[in-house]
Design a protein that fits this description.
Blueprint (H helix, E strand, L loop, with lengths): L16 H28 L12 H4 L7 E9 L2 E9 L7 E10 L11 E8 L2 E4 L5 E4 L14
Antiparallel strand pairs: 1-2, 2-3, 3-4, 5-6
């Protein structure tokens, strides 16, 4: 299993065409999962989506590949790990962090774009325990928040 300790992500950079194509191939999944996450978290911990609490679902999911702000990529023997920062255009300074996994299609070596397939691994949700024991939750990040390795 890939972990932050076993996989070396490159530095954050503007997305190149391969990253844009990968994101476009799973765009519907990202939007669906984001809205599902919001509904699930609103039942138990509304703070995750507090930054966009008054934003309708249609506006929250109004992003496209044009809103890819930056990406970080790492290759492993079994596939590609792509982390992406995506701007929510309907909200000032609101981003989601998305993790995508790509691999070679069955029977190919994955050397060309049409020989690769991508799937949404996760949309980052963060729970931070402060020194006083208080917890801070978020799924919406800001422009200055670093795009780091995440599993959730």
């Amino acid at each position: 299993m890939a972990t932050e300790e076993t996989v070396q992500l490159n530095e954050a950079h503007a997305p190149q065409q391969a990253s844009i194509d990968a994101f476009n191939s799973i765009l519907h999944s990202v939007k669906s999962e984001l809205l599902k996450l919001r509904r699930d978290h609103d039942k138990h911990e509304v703070e995750y989506f507090r930054a966009v609490k008054d934003v309708p679902d249609s506006d929250l999911a109004s992003f496209s590949a044009d809103d890819l702000e930056s990406v970080r990529v790492a290759s492993t023997a079994y596939g590609l790990h792509l982390f992406a920062k995506v701007k929510i255009p309907a909200v000032s300074d609101a981003y989601i962090h998305v993790r995508i996994f790509g691999k070679a299609k069955e029977g190919t070596d994955g050397s060309s774009l049409d020989e690769r397939e991508y799937k949404l691994h996760s949309i980052h949700t963060e729970e931070v325990v402060k020194e006083d024991g208080d917890r801070v939750y978020r799924a919406i990040f800001k422009k200055d928040d670093a795009l780091e390795w995440f599993d959730t």
